[in-house]
Amino acid sequence: MSEHDLWDAIDRHGGDLAAWPDMLRQRAELQRTLDPAFAEALNEARALDALLFSAHEAEPLPYGMATRIVARASEPSIPRWLRPRIALPFAAAFAGAATLAGAAIADVLASADPELLSLAELALGAAGIIAGN
Amino acid sequence: MGPQDESSDDELVAASARGDERAFRRLVERHGPRTRSFARRLAGNSADADDYVQEAFTRLWRDAGRWRSEGIKLSTWLARVVTNLSADQARRARVRRSVTMEDAPEPADLGQSAEAALIETERRSALDRAISALPERQRAVIALTYGTGLSNSEVATALDTTVEAVEAALTRGRAALKSAMRAQGLLQGTVKEMGS
Fold this sequence. Notes:
The complex is a heterodimer.
Chain A: H1 3-13, H2 22-34, H3 36-55, H4 65-74, H5 83-110, H6 114-126
Chain B: H1 9-17, H2 21-43, H3 46-63, H4 74-92, H5 114-132, H6 136-147, H7 152-158, H8 163-183, H9 186-193
């Protein structure tokens, strides 16, 4: 085991020597007493560990979140195989309604009295809403 | 606090499978905070993280009857679901991973001096930015190691990878974070405060 291996082990195992494999730990403890730079690197690794543990501390769930999770999770869901059977009738109903509405408008326009249309055109022309001929 | 609080995860999952919403709620309360903390680290924002947590527990409720621990902790299973959801999201669209104002840490303690609180806030913000800049796999390994207390082999199970890959990601992640914090002079201050 080289000194290089010991330095690599700092990033691999972190700054807590207690968590290192036994053989490495013994070498690292010795190295720490001999090499101030190694000791400083271990201290930095411990500091980073402390910051990371602190940064990853779990906070309580926001108020009401647990209730929402339970409510949404347990609400009955539509099985995947049933979805097309519900969606298709809706699509068909919408298409049918649109067709009927279009037919009704066409029917009204076709059956309109030509005299009434002329009168309406005159009135709108007189009011300046549409340009007269 | 009822006797159900002492129940194991397996017992609560089994009760959930029978439609016991109280048991399920207990699981949400027990595992929700850490799952959400991990999800926030992966997603980089609270909105996506909350969606992941909701979906993970919805799957747990839906599949409770089929859930078998088989040596895998529930926290590991939840972490795996969140990881997969995050990966799916990343595949569909690049997830914005900047640290939002909402995610910025609060000043540490009203009792601290303003200067100390400012330094602490700066340090936490810098660390959050450095974590966000890590590749997704390293971020996930760091979050699971420091946020959930899972062992390397459990982290490997959660991420569906090998222990060696976890150790490599942990090593690179730590090196990158140390470098980022050292460059801003924020690691040395922590060393001094620790009295080393």
